[in-house]
């Protein structure tokens, strides 16, 4: 009879140990899953931050290029207007030596 009781207690003990082991495995899996989800969330946040920085850098570069093009266009327009003004005055004063000489002296004073 004692052997039978011992065997029964032994099986109960084995069952409890298996349950404890299964619970420990489930807890470890849950902890691992939670840690991995935290890591994924951190990586997603870093990716979003890098994407925002890349987009900001692209926007800044585009603005710099646009500004340079605008300045260049402004300079070209200023030079074209000056040249047109010079040509118009030369045409108007062609044949009028006095005015031509006076304008030439003014041009020389500019530089």
Task: Give the structure's gist in a few sentences.
The chain has two helices and no strands.
What keyword list fits this structure?
111 residues, 95% helix, 2 helices
Structure overview:
By secondary structure, this protein is mostly helical. It has one domain. It is built from 2 helices and no strands. It has helices at 2-93, 97-110. The relative contact order is 0.03. The mean pLDDT is 83.
Please write out the topology:
Elements: H1 2-93, H2 97-110
Overall domain count: 1
**Fraction of residues in β-strands:** under 5%
Stretches where pLDDT is under 50 for at least 5 consecutive residues are none
Order of helices and strands: HH
* Overall spatial form: rod-shaped
Q: Using the CA coordinates, give the radius of gyration.
A: 44 Å
Largest sheet: none
Helix content: over 70%
Distance between the termini: 125 Å
Averaged pLDDT, please?
83
Structural class category:
mainly alpha
Number of helices: 2
DSSP summary, beta strand count: 0
């Amino acid at each position: 009879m004692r052997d039978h009781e011992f065997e029964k207690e032994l099986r109960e003990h084995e069952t409890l140990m298996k349950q404890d082991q299964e619970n420990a495995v489930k807890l470890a899996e849950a902890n691992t899953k939670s840690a991995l989800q935290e890591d994924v969330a951190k990586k997603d946040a870093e990716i979003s931050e890098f994407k925002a920085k890349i987009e900001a850098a692209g926007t800044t570069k585009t603005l710099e290029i646009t500004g340079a093009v605008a300045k260049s266009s402004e300079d070209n327009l200023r030079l074209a207007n000056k040249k047109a003004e010079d040509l118009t005055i030369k045409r108007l004063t062609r044949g009028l030596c006095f005015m031509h000489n006076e304008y030439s002296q003014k041009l020389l004073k500019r530089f």
